[in-house]
Design brief:
Layout (H helix, E strand, L loop, with lengths): L11 H19 L12 E6 L5 H12 L3 E6 L11 H10 L4 E6 L4 H7 L6 E7 L5 H16 L11 E5 L6 H12 L3 E5 L15 E3 L2 H4 L5 E4 L15 H8 L3 H4 L7 E3 L12 H4 L6 H20 L15
Parallel strand pairs: 1-2, 1-3, 3-4, 5-6, 5-8, 6-7, 8-9
Helix pairs in contact: 1-5, 1-11, 2-11, 5-6, 5-11
Bound molecules: phosphoric acid mono(formamide)ester.
Pathway: Pyrimidine metabolism; UMP biosynthesis via de novo pathway; (S)-dihydroorotate from bicarbonate: step 2/3
InterPro entries: Asp/Orn_carbamoyltranf_P-bd, Asp/Orn_carbamoylTrfase, Asp/Orn_carbamoylTrfase_sf, Asp_carbamoyltransf, Asp_carbamoyltransf_Asp/Orn-bd
Subunit structure: Heterododecamer (2C3:3R2) of six catalytic PyrB chains organized as two trimers (C3), and six regulatory PyrI chains organized as three dimers (R2).
C-alpha cells in the first residue's frame, strides 16, 4: 500500500496497527530524546492549498521527530496565485525529490488525483480535501478515544463504544472519515444535525441519524462537536448563533446529561459560544488538547508505516495504508 486517501481504505487491522504504532512512537517520543533517526534522508512536503493550524503543524512536527527533511508549501504566496496548476506544482515537487506529499486542498478528490496521476512517485497523504475526507483526523480521534475509553490498550478497537457526531455534517470531511473509521473499529455512531446540515444520502451511511441531541446524549460514550463551517455556506443559509446553540450547542447543562465517563471531543478550530460553550471546551471532560497531541503521534505512525523507515527498535516497517 502506497497512499492514505480515505478512511475507507483502512481495514480494522490496518487501523489498529496505526494506533498501536502511534502508541509506541508516542512513548518513545515522550522521553527526553524527542527525535528518532527513522526517516533520515527522506523528504516530506506539506502541500497546503487551504488554511490549517493543527494538521500542518502536527505533520511538520511528526516528520521532524522522525528526522525527515520537511518542506512547507502554502498556496498563499506561491505561484498558484499566478495560475499554476496542481499538475505543474506536483511536477515541481517531484523534481525536488519528495518522498511523501501531505496535501490539503479545497477540492474534494485532489489527493486522489495526485495519487493516481503519475505526476509524483512518492506517497500521498490526504490532510483534508473539500467536504470529502480527513483520514488522519479520524485516526487521531480514534487514538484519543481508545486512550480515554479503553485505556490505550494495544490491539484494542472501539467495539460497542457509542460515538455521537453533532453539527454541520453536510460540510464535514471529519464526520465522513470518522463515520467510516469508527464503524470499522466497531463503534456505534450516531450523527445529529438539523435537517439542513445533513447531506443527501446520509441514510445510506453506516450510522444512525437523529435531529434530537438531548435524546442521544444519555446513550453516548463520546460526543464529538463539529464546527459550523460558515465559509462553505451561502450566507442566506447561515443559522443564527443563538438558535443553533439552543438546539445543537453543547453547554454545561447538556454535558451533565451525558454518562459520567463520557467525553466531549472537537477537531478544532472551535466556534466557542456556537457549537460549544467555553465551560464545556475548557472542562476536563473535553479531549480537544489530547486530540492535538494524538495528532502528532498518529501522523508519525502514518509517515513511518508508509515510508517504511527503521523503527524505534531498528526493525523495518511495512506499509499499511492504501
Ligand atoms: N482539525 C483540523 O484539521 O484543524 P486545522 O484546520 O487547524 O488543521
Amino acid at each position: 500500500k502506497h497512499h492514505l486517501i480515505s478512511a475507507a481504505d483502512l481495514t480494522r487491522d490496518d487501523a489498529v496497527l496505526i494506533l498501536d504504532t502511534a502508541e509506541e512512537l508516542s512513548r518513545v517520543a515522550g522521553r527526553p530524546i524527542k527525535k528518532l533517526p527513522t526517516l533520515r534522508g527522506r523528504t516530506v512536503v506539506n502541500l497546503f492549498f487551504e488554511d490549517s493550524t493543527r494538521t500542518r503543524i502536527s505533520f511538520e512536527a511528526a516528520a521532524k521527530r522522525l528526522s525527515a527533511d520537511v518542506i512547507n508549501f502554502s498556496a498563499k504566496g506561491s505561484s498558484v496565485s499566478k495560475g499554476e496548476s496542481l499538475k505543474d506544482t506536483a511536477l515541481t515537487l517531484e523534481a525536488m525529490g519528495a518522498d511523501a506529499v501531505v496535501i490539503r486542498h479545497h477540492d474534494s478528490g485532489a489527493p486522489h488525483r495526485l495519487a493516481t496521476s503519475g505526476w509524483i512517485g512518492g506517497h500521498v497523504v490526504n490532510a483534508g480535501d473539500g467536504t470529502h475526507e480527513h483520514p488522519t483526523q479520524a485516526l487521531l480521534d480514534a487514538f484519543a478515544l481508545r486512550r480515554r475509553l479503553v485505556g490505550g490498550e494495544l490491539g484494542a478497537d472501539l467495539t460497542g463504544r457509542r460515538v455521537t457526531i453533532v453539527g454541520d455534517i453536510l460540510h464535514s470531511r471529519v464526520a465522513r472519515s470518522n463515520v467510516r473509521l469508527l464503524t470499522t473499529l466497531g463503534a456505534e455512531v450516531t450523527v445529529v444535525a438539523p435537517p439542513t446540515l445533513l447531506p443527501v444520502g446520509v441514510e445510506s451511511w453506516p450510522c444512525a441519524v437523529s435531529y434530537d441531541l438531548d435524546a442521544v446524549l444519555p446513550d453516548s460514550d463520546a460526543v464529538m462537536m463539529l464546527r459550523v463551517q460558515r465559509e462553505r455556506m451561502n450566507a442566506a443559509f447561515f443559522p443564527t448563533e443563538r438558535e443553533y446553540a439552543r438546539r445543537y450547542g453543547l453547554d454545561g447543562e447538556r454535558m451533565a446529561r451525558m454518562p459520567e465517563h463520557a467525553v466531549v471531543m472537537h477537531p478544532g478550530p472551535m466556534n466557542r459560544g456556537m457549537e460549544i460553550t467555553a465551560e464545556v471546551a475548557d472542562s476536563p471532560r473535553c479531549t480537544v488538547v489530547e486530540q492535538v497531541s494524538a495528532g502528532v503521534s498518529v501522523r508519525m505512525a502514518v509517515l513511518y508505516l508508509l515510508l517504511g523507515g527503521a523503527g524505534p527498535t531498528g526493525e523495518e516497517a511495512t506499509a499499511t495504508a492504501s
